[in-house]
């Protein structure tokens, strides 16, 4: 059965944004001295992340999580650049491209049966 890779990657992008934002809320509280109240939207965002992953058109959770990992890595480097103001270097970019290629292979690879 052939699956639509692009909609799944878009869903993973939304999940990555939710996960990174949720984790960053805790980072802000624990590492940047922000208010404990920062964790409330963080928890909501992490719940949204978990729900979004269940929407992926993948038969097995482990495969969904494995493919998601590549998207998460690329999204984390975008967060680094756009939110934290630190530009990723060429090694970051090369690693992210490699991970995205791996995610695409996991999602689009032919399956037996």
Automatic annotation (TrEMBL):
It is a multi-pass membrane protein. Keywords: Cell inner membrane, Cell membrane, Membrane, Transmembrane, Transmembrane helix. It comes from the Bacteria. GO terms for cellular component: plasma membrane. The chain crosses the membrane at residues 9-30, 36-53, 65-82, 94-112. The keyword tRNA processing does not apply. This is Uncharacterized protein. It comes from Azospirillum lipoferum (strain 4B).
